[in-house]
Amino acid sequence: MGVLREQIVVCTTYDWDSNDRSKLDSFVEQHPKFFVKLSTMINGVINYIMFWDGSKEGWPESDEADELREQFINLLKKLGWASIYEIDNYEHENPILEYTFILDGEIYDEDS
């Protein structure tokens, strides 16, 4: 039972922004099933991606991914500069995109 809920998080930041990056990198390295870190060759851009776990809501894998997603987003929000995109595609109907921008540690999102 359960429904499909594809949830993906993408973050773009820069290598010169070292605020809490070691904690974030360690977290990503500890969970390779869910996360990837890609560094570009230009301008020091770093991309972090959390993929959908592939399970249905209510399954243990989904619950684990939900907890990791929350921790991941909290770590991203500690960066000094970042663009964070949260994609939530619930049963392939009306996907939701939430955008958060962080500049000098200040968080700007839909509620700001």
Query: How far do the termini sit from each other?
Result: 37 Å
Report the count of strand segments.
6
Helix and strand content put the structural class at alpha+beta
SSE pattern, N- to C-terminal: EHEEHEEE
Notes on the protein architecture:
There is one protein chain. With 112 residues, this protein is an alpha+beta fold. It has helices at 21-30, 60-76; strands at residues 5-14, 35-39, 45-50, 81-90, 96-103, 106-108. The chain has a six-stranded antiparallel beta sheet with strand order 2-3-1-4-5-6, covered by helices on one side. The longest helix has 17 residues, at 60-76. 14% of the residues are buried.
Topology readout:
Layout lengths: L4 E10 L6 H10 L4 E5 L5 E6 L9 H17 L4 E10 L5 E8 L2 E3 L4
Antiparallel strand pairs: 1-3, 1-4, 2-3, 4-5, 5-6
Looking at this protein, list some descriptive labels:
globular, alpha+beta, 6-stranded antiparallel sheet, 112 residues, single chain, 2 helices
